[in-house]
Specification:
Helix content is 75%, strand content 0%. The chain is built from 16 helices and no strands. The longest helix is centred in the C-terminal third of the chain and has 50 residues, at 324-373.
């Protein structure tokens, strides 16, 4: 990848920006609610559902937004969507900062923040698919370290900033987003071909992208294929679980607090373990990407699915006051989940549909996946209100069993770009190698 110096310069710029795309994507989609919700509950007496309802509504709107954004990404490219999205999101963060007890301003602002993190995710996915084939897993593994980095430094930093400056801390976030928009505008190109380069810094066009193999896929064709629905079901479950888990981890620990936990279990114990676990788990994002590059996305997806259980099971069985061993396992699982999910989602879609058809397929797949994900906060809120939050985690364990079985049925699907990948096998030039043979 770095043998071509011109390619290397642009690759490094993207790797740098990509980390921040996923840092703010995870931080402003889910994680900041762990600080914002307790603060607003204490400051204004708002219920958790009142605080998160605008986010839930936004998550419903995102269902259609994935389709609209996918179309815009295909038509105009990633940069022309990313830059204005970052600018508007920055102003929305200012809205949160100045809203005070004005619920209308707060609701509009947090609604905009929730929907505008989506271009960060989709843009990072598309740019990786456009620029890398052989190294796509490892590149995704690097840029998606931004997600667990939120757990390592983001939550602690925002907790401190909110304690010192209250919601004015969001003005600082807005400034960072504007800087990110500026660098994106200057430093990003949508495809290597715009610079007369090829993916991975190669000196020739991808072998796997013959006209025959990259024929455009129609919506009707896509939605009539079992492989598309298997992707939708399996990763739809994984996205639902990560949304539910990350948005309610503070509420879960607060609900488990005892009189000896001051000010509450999340701050006194949970946050410490989250930081330790996330720091140790950051390499898992790259490890899963490396596994994807070496043995394929299906096997790597099975490993990711198992890692989710390390995050969900401890919170299902956690006793009041916490348990050190369970909290350590939970922290590691969260790190693997937040680092691995954004790595594997674009990888497995590229694996099935290839670089050229990635966004055409992805915009429909993510649109349908967003339907159950949009109800994740409501799902957790309902169980929390009736005092049965543990049940919510047991149900998620059952869902993860379903996703594992679904991924397992995909094991014979071949990699669409197999000729340009780095699998440690020899190819017969007269036929395509299937994943089952790898």
């Amino acid at each position: 990848m770095f043998k071509n110096k011109r390619f290397a310069i642009h690759a490094v710029v993207f790797l740098f920006l990509g980390v921040f795309y996923f840092f703010f994507y995870s931080g402003l989609q889910n994680d900041h609610l762990n600080i914002l919700t307790p603060f607003l509950q204490e400051k204004y007496g708002w219920s958790d559902l009142r605080i998160t309802n605008p986010v839930t509504v936004a998550a419903v709107i995102v269902i259609i937004l994935y389709l609209v954004l996918g179309t815009l990404f295909v038509k105009y490219g990633a940069k022309k969507v990313l830059v204005p999205s970052l600018i508007v999101m920055a102003f929305a963060c200012v809205g949160i900062a100045v809203a005070g007890d004005n619920y209308a301003i707060y609701a509009i602002s947090i609604f905009l923040v929730r929907i505008l993190v989506v271009p960060l995710q989709m843009g990072g996915f598309m740019l990786t698919a456009n620029w890398f084939i052989k190294y796509r897993g490892r590149v995704m593994g690097i840029i998606t370290t931004g997600s667990p980095l939120v757990s390592v430094v983001g939550i602690s930093l925002l907790t401190s900033l909110v304690a010192s400056y209250e919601l004015k801390a969001y003005i600082m976030i807005a400034g960072a987003l504007l800087v990110l928009a500026l660098i994106t505008a200057i430093g990003i190109k949508d495809t290597p071909e715009e610079l007369s380069l090829y993916p991975d810094g190669s000196d020739k066009a991808p072998i796997s992208e013959t006209e025959e193999k990259t024929e455009a896929i129609s919506v009707k064709q896509l939605l009539s294929e079992s492989r598309a629905w298997k992707l939708i079901i399996s990763y739809g479950i994984l996205q639902f679980v990560i949304m539910a888990m990350m948005s309610y981890m503070a509420i879960r620990y607060i609900s488990l607090s005892t009189e000896n936990d001051v000010p509450n279990l999340f701050v006194s114990k949970g946050l410490l373990w989250l930081s330790i676990g996330a720091l140790s788990g950051i390499p898992m994002s790259y490890v899963l990407g490396w596994i994807d590059d070496k043995i394929g996305s299906i096997k790597a997806s099975l490993i990711l699915n198992i890692m989710y259980l390390f995050a969900v099971v401890p919170l299902a069985v956690m006793p009041a006051g916490g348990n050190t061993a369970l909290m350590a396992v939970w922290a590691f699982g969260v790190a693997c989940m937040t680092g691995g999910m954004p790595t594997m989602h674009p990888c497995v879609t590229s694996y099935v549909y290839g670089r050229k058809n990635y966004m055409a397929a992805n915009k429909w797949i993510m649109t349908i996946q967003a339907i159950p994900m949009s109800f994740a906060l409501t799902y957790m809120g309902i169980f929390n209100q009736i005092g049965q939050l543990s049940v919510a985690y047991y149900i998620m364990i059952g869902l993860l069993v379903i996703s594992f079985i679904t991924i397992l049925t995909m094991r014979n699907i071949p990699d669409a770009n197999v000729e340009d990948r780095d699998y440690k096998v020899k190819l017969n030039s007269d036929r395509e190698l299937t994943q089952a043979e790898l």
